[in-house]
C-alpha cells in the first residue's frame, strides 16, 4: 500500500431491516474492531424514512461508553437541517464523553424536500450550511459568542463545556459537486467520498479536491482523504449481490444502486477493487459491510495500520 495510506474505519451495525435492534451485535462489533486495529467507528444519518436506523449521535454516545481508544465519527450530518446551538452542544458533549475522539462529518444533503418538517423553508441550503458551521465554531472557540448572520443571531452568548480537541473536533466534509468540494477545501479538516459514489466518481472528486486545496494554499498531507465503501465479501457472488440489493432497498429505497456503487464477491476480487480506490487517491477507508460483520472485520483487517 502507498505510504500515504493511513488506515481504515468500520461502520458499526446501525440499520436493522428486520426491525430488531441488536445491542449485543453493536457492542461486540465495536469492541472487536477496536481490538483488531481499526482506527475509527462510524455512524451515518438517516432521520426521516422507513429504514430501521438508529440516530447517529445517540449511538456514538453509547460507543463512547463501551470503547476506549478508537475514534468515533459520523458521516455525514445534514447540517442545513440541524439547529446550530443544539448541535454544537451535543457534539461538544460527545467529544468530552469520548475524551477527545470525535470526528464530525457534515454535508449539504441530497435535496431540501424535508426542510419544512424541521421548521425550515425550502431553499438557501448553502446559506444554512455555511452559517451553521460558522455559528458552531463560534460556540466551540470563544468564551463569549457574538454572532450576526442572515439566519442566525446571538448576542453575549456562551456555551460550556468546550470540546476537548482544540480548536474544534475535526470536521470532515462529504461533498460531490465542484462548489461543495471547494467549500470542503476551504473550511473542512478532511473529506470523505460518499458510499453512493462509484470509484470513477471518487477519482474525479479527488482531482478536484487537490486542485482546491492548492488554491487555498493548504497542505494535502494534513488533510485526510477517505472513502466509504459498501463491501460484501462472499465466495457466492450472487448471494452477496442479492443481500446488498435487499439492504439498499430497505435503507435507501433504491435496490438498483447497490451493484452500481458496491464491491462484492470473493475476497481477492474485493481486494483488487479496494486497491484500485487507493490508486485513485484514497488515504483511508470507511468499510461498510451490511451483514456478516465478524467475517468482514477479519477479512478487511489487512487495510488497518499498526
Structure description:
It is built from ten helices and eleven strands. It has 306 residues and is an alpha/beta fold. Helix 5 links the parallel strand 7 (171-174) and strand 8. It has one domain: TIM Barrel. The two termini are 13 Å apart. The chain has helices at residues 23-36, 56-66, 84-97, 125-141, 178-187, 199-215, 237-251, 257-261, 267-279, 293-299, and strands at 7-11, 40-43, 71-78, 102-107, 145-148, 153-157, 171-174, 190-193, 225-233, 263-265, 284-288.
Oligomeric form of this entry? Answer: single chain
Give the biggest sheet: 8 strands, parallel, barrel
Shape: globular
Widest sheet: strand ordering: 1-2-3-4-7-8-9-11
Q: Give the integer mean of the pLDDT values.
A: 97
- Whole-number count of domains: 1
**Helix percentage range:** 40-55%
Order of SSEs = EHEHEHEHEEEHEHEHHEHEH
Supply the helix-strand structural class.
alpha/beta
Radius of gyration: 19 Å
Q: In the CATH hierarchy, what is the class?
A: Alpha Beta
Low-confidence parts: none
What layout of secondary structure does this protein have?
Blueprint: E1 7-11, H1 23-36, E2 40-43, H2 56-66, E3 71-78, H3 84-97, E4 102-107, H4 125-141, E5 145-148, E6 153-157, E7 171-174, H5 178-187, E8 190-193, H6 199-215, E9 225-233, H7 237-251, H8 257-261, E10 263-265, H9 267-279, E11 284-288, H10 293-299
Parallel strand pairs: 1-2, 1-11, 2-3, 3-4, 4-7, 7-8, 8-9, 9-10, 9-11
Antiparallel strand pairs: 5-6
Helix pairs in contact: 1-10, 2-3, 3-4, 5-6
Short note summarizing the structure:
The chain is an alpha/beta fold and 306 residues long. It is built from 10 helices and 11 strands. The protein has one domain (7-303): Luciferase-like domain (TIM Barrel).
